Every structure is written in structure tokens, then in C-alpha cells.
């Protein structure tokens, strides 16, 4: 595959799965003492946990929240207390907002769980608990999506919201997931190359999705196309597409449709069926079209992971076609802001 380190990818995703016991130990220890969980991050890695909270919203009665670190510290939720667990994802473990947040929690004797992608970080040293899996930008989304699911599934099991059999079935599939995702990447290769050739000079994309998968639409638009490629985007939830955004669509306007396998398919299908009436520039990425040796029950909860794996291939080809490496920035960590 083009510009891809297969060995590193497999190691990263297997590493995420292998954090099961570490995550379970933390959840089992704190669950008798907590009433809610806050996923609080900054930027892209924080956004990924919107998917976790959306997953939990429709499957669990336990309260999960995803909020933005800087805003939260200025005005915490009223439900935030010493009976909360704060999960702080940070790829580098050095993000200032995350370090400020762990200090904020420590001052209030509130337990924190850091999910870090780099070793021996300041965040790891400050947090109550730490789970570490070595990741880089191009492999991080799947890892964090998976760790978020692992937290929620453990709580659902301990609260009696899923059976041990259901829980074990999910994890049997998770163990297979690294190699199955690799198969997905290989299936996506031709599509990704064609996309890059067609859209390398396109200055603007509308991106839509729904359910667990809307997070990937939001994340991919802001954190990849905008930050890493300087391409303007308009992520919009498929349910809101007909409340404003449809008026921006006309012939030649690119719309990217991300479709997963959860309850939200009919919501996305409505947009998918409408678009040919108003534009000839439509790209549909539907996880259901990719073959995997994974149960249907598990496929329904991992659509964001599959989308992230497919879109990494798109990013690799697009950055090459545009002669714009994904690491190039104008302002990020270059000037004060």
C-alpha cells in the first residue's frame, strides 16, 4: 500500500486492544465510587470521544459527557463532583489545556484517567491513572475510538446492561480487528487514489454523517482537511442537512457522505437519495461495502473506526497529489495564539 507502515499499524491497533485489562482495572476500582464520567480533551483527540458518548447515549443509562477542556474549567457542569471520573485523552501528553485540566481535577481531589500516546509524559505523571498505547497521528483515531468503547462496554457489563456473553463476543472481534482493518485499507486503496486525483484541487467540501459516525465527519473535516490540507469544509449532521446546508449545494459542489451501520442509516440515506437531484459531485463512503470477518453486532458499534481506517488512505493519497505533507502547518505550534 502507498506510503503506509503496515507493521506499525498492526502494532498500534493491537496495542489498543491489549489495554483491555488496564482499562478494566481502573473502571472496576472506581465504579463503586463514581456517578458519571467526563471525557475531556482538546482539539481532534477530544472530538473523537463524541462518538463514545453518542454510543453510550443509545445503549447505557450511566451518565457520560464529552466537553471541551478550556470551557469546562471556566464553567464546569453542575453534575461534576468528587464522584466523577475525568478521562483525558492526549496524543502527546503535553497539551497545555490537558495539563491545566489534570491540575484542576487534582486540586479538587477528582480522579483522572489519562489516555496517552507518548511515553513518560507530564500528563501521565500527574494523572491518577494512565493507559499508554504508542500511537502517531495516522494511527491514533482507531486507537482512541476503541479505548472509548472499552470504557463504556466495561461499565455496561458491570451495570448489567449487557451480558458477559455479549461483552466477550465484542472483545473476540476486537482481537481480530487490527488484521481486519488492514483488509479494509487494502480494499480502500483504489477509491482513495481516485479520490485524490479527482479532488486534489477542490477548495471546499460539505461532509455529512449521523449517529456514531458523525464524529468522523466532524473530525475529518476540521482536523485533517482543514488543519493538515488547508481545505475549507462544512461538516453537518445528516439530520440537520435539510435545515440550511442543502441551500449551499449545486452542480459542482462536493459533498462527502459518511455512512455507518448503526441506527442512523436511514437518516444518512435521506441525504444520499436527495443529492443526485442537485449536484453531480458526490462521494459516498459506506462501511457496509467493506468486507470484514467481524460479526454484524460488532460492526454496528465500530463504524467510526472503519471510517477512520478508510480515510487514512484518502489522506495519504490526497496529501501526495497536492504536494502538501500532512505534517505541514502555518500556525499550529509555530506562532503564539
Automatic annotation (TrEMBL):
Family annotation (Gene3D superfamilies): Glucose-6-phosphate isomerase like protein, domain 1
Keyword Hydrolase: yes
GO biological process: fructose 6-phosphate metabolic process; protein N-linked glycosylation; UDP-N-acetylglucosamine metabolic process
Enzyme Commission number(s) from the entry: 3.5.-.-
Keyword Nucleus appears in the UniProt entry: no
Alphabetized SUPFAM superfamilies for the sequence: SIS domain
Protein name: Fructosamine deglycase
Source species of the chain: Ligilactobacillus pobuzihii
